[in-house]
Specification:
Strand content: 15-25%
Bound molecules: NADP nicotinamide-adenine-dinucleotide phosphate
Shape: globular
Structural class: alpha/beta
Helix content: 25-40%
Number of strands: 13
Strand order of the largest sheet: 3-2-1-4-5-6-11
Largest sheet: 7 strands, parallel
Oligomer: single chain
Radius of gyration: 20 Å
Order of helices and strands: EHEEHEHEHEEHEEEHEEHEHHHH
Length: 341
Amino acid sequence: VRILVLGGTRFVGHAIATAAPAAGHRVTTFNRGVSGSDAPGVQAVRGDRYSARSLDALAQRGPWDAVIDTSGYIPRNVRDVARSLEGASGRYLFMSTVSVYADWPVRPLNDDAATLICPPDAGPDFGVDTEDGPTRYGYQKSGCEAAVAAVFGPERTTVLRPGVVLGPHEYVGRLPWWLRRMARGGPVLAPGSRTRTIQPMDVRDLAAFALLTVERGDTGSYNVCAPPDRTTFEDLLRACIRATRSDAELMWIPDAELLAHGVRQWSELPLWRTHPGVWQVDSSKARRIGLHSRPIEDTVASTWDWLSASGAADRNERAAEIGISPEKEARILGARAGGVN
Ligand SMILES: NC(=O)c1ccc[n+]([C@@H]2O[C@H](COP(=O)([O-])OP(=O)(O)OC[C@H]3O[C@@H](n4cnc5c(N)ncnc54)[C@H](OP(=O)(O)O)[C@@H]3O)[C@@H](O)[C@H]2O)c1
């Protein structure tokens, strides 16, 4: 299959651009050459998806059987990109997110849940960020989905909606933060409940599923998350302890105490969020056509291997946004001295 990956050098796009040539596909990638590096075996085309001239030049390099768009965020831009490539590609797969759902993270979801309303020509200011529900990112990804469908039509459009994606090259820094924290050892603040289930998706399994839908010609939209009741927060943290060969001791602190201490959900203790719908996303539609999710142990070990090999094991580039400070962690644990576990 001839595939054009928009992006392809960073995380999700890089995993697709790495797996596709290995599976025998002919792959072109399109990016500015600013972040990351090209996967082996791809034909890399440089250009800016916000430049009409770059898009015209890109379209001349076709045809392709499918575009896989991993770098689309603004509806109006996705519409322009889709229009430029409509004659050059058979289908368009858009990498979206569960944030398009109106009820995420508050209520359990399936593939038919209502999505946020955003016009396909919306610009970067459309939508609002709320504390406990919809975000501008979610509104705009929903508008991007609409833009692709408006240009390619539903019979040539595929939309994948992952939740949290983890694995090698993760640049958000969620799993890297937990791994670095465990590597430091000692008493570690473990958030909420040890039995809370989570559904992170391994980036390599997401890439394999994207390629599967392209090979099969599947259209429509698919939630792409690990099964809802398989992996607990404790499984994740213990896998981090094993991968880093750490002496860390988990100290479980209940949600209410963390909230009383003003701990920021999702970012200060990555993946910790109390809303009941966060990890209740039904992906059975994708699973029925072949979505596979490897055990969390594998995701964690591979991510530590990558961090260690890249020399980034002790460097947190997004320290301002991700992770609790050692002082605050110690303060919360101290307030509970003699308490839990
Ligand atoms: N991470 C998660 O947990 C998660 C969860 C749900 C959904 N998603 C979705 O997954 C996708 C993430 O993709 P990703 O990890 O590969 O990273 P990304 O940061 O979204 O995309 C980066 C890629 O796009 C290229 N790019 C950026 N700006 C460009 C421009 N103006 N023109 C051309 N190329 C440009 C970058 O290369 P250059 O900088 O060199 O141009 C790079 O190859 C997103 O669509 C996101 O919404 C992620």
